[in-house]
Amino acid sequence: MTSSPPAALSARTLIHGFGGLEVLHGVSLEVSLGEVVAVTGPSGSGKSTLLHLLGGLDRPQSGEIWWGGERADTLDTQARARRRAASVGLVFQHHYLLPDLDVLSNLQVPGLLLRRDVTAAARTLLDRVGLAGRERAMPEQLSGGERQRVALARALVTGPAIVLADEPTGSLDRANAVAVMDLLLSLAHDSGTGVLLVTHDDALAARTDRQLHLLDGRFVDRVPALG
């Protein structure tokens, strides 16, 4: 019998805190290849902490994190950075494009970290996000929505198994937020990339394949209404 491929991302009983205050209390989750999952919850519930741990930007105090079939939290800092460059795409509320590099060069940066030429993939993705012909534009020449589309393309250029997106539409107007969400969903489903999306926007979260609600460092069935 053929075994199933490993999940794009899995986490098991993550515990983490700061200064003696526990922020995450045994959180577990799994994201399949090609699945888009939203994490919602009020401010202070632990969403950003969770995403930093899952992206290998910090190490959990307890628990396990797996990127594909490889455990990530036990890797040393350099090995984790190399593995993240190959396996994980990161998208944030701010685009974080390098201002002195044009659009195409910004997309080539992840390939440089892996000593891989990603130019062909970068051009294909720019076409997919509606920016063909803008390869030599500088970030300052782009609108906010265009910059975020470039950031999304950059996160996918190395063909990662998982993309972690922290409020990627939070700084955009409604029309651009919907357009970026459309792209995120279509690119993830078409490429088979798993996506974990942190958002405060319930309408956008409802469009994902599955929603997880984080409250006080634990996943709950739903986030209770205030008042």
UniProtKB/TrEMBL annotation:
<dbReference type="InterPro" id="IPR003439">
    <property type="entry name" value="ABC_transporter-like_ATP-bd"/>
</dbReference>
<feature type="domain" description="ABC transporter">
    <location>
        <begin position="9"/>
        <end position="227"/>
    </location>
</feature>
<dbReference type="Pfam" id="PF00005">
    <property type="entry name" value="ABC_tran"/>
</dbReference>
<dbReference type="InterPro" id="IPR017871">
    <property type="entry name" value="ABC_transporter-like_CS"/>
</dbReference>
<dbReference type="InterPro" id="IPR015854">
    <property type="entry name" value="ABC_transpr_LolD-like"/>
</dbReference>
<dbReference type="InterPro" id="IPR017911">
    <property type="entry name" value="MacB-like_ATP-bd"/>
</dbReference>
<dbReference type="InterPro" id="IPR027417">
    <property type="entry name" value="P-loop_NTPase"/>
</dbReference>
<keyword id="KW-0067">ATP-binding</keyword>
<dbReference type="GO" id="GO:0005886">
    <property type="term" value="C:plasma membrane"/>
</dbReference>
<keyword id="KW-0547">Nucleotide-binding</keyword>
<dbReference type="InterPro" id="IPR003593">
    <property type="entry name" value="AAA+_ATPase"/>
</dbReference>
<dbReference type="GO" id="GO:0022857">
    <property type="term" value="F:transmembrane transporter activity"/>
</dbReference>
<keyword id="KW-0813">Transport</keyword>
<dbReference type="GO" id="GO:0005524">
    <property type="term" value="F:ATP binding"/>
</dbReference>
<comment type="similarity">
    <text>Belongs to the ABC transporter superfamily.</text>
</comment>
<dbReference type="GO" id="GO:0016887">
    <property type="term" value="F:ATP hydrolysis activity"/>
</dbReference>
<protein>
    <submittedName>
        <fullName>ABC transporter ATP-binding protein</fullName>
    </submittedName>
</protein>
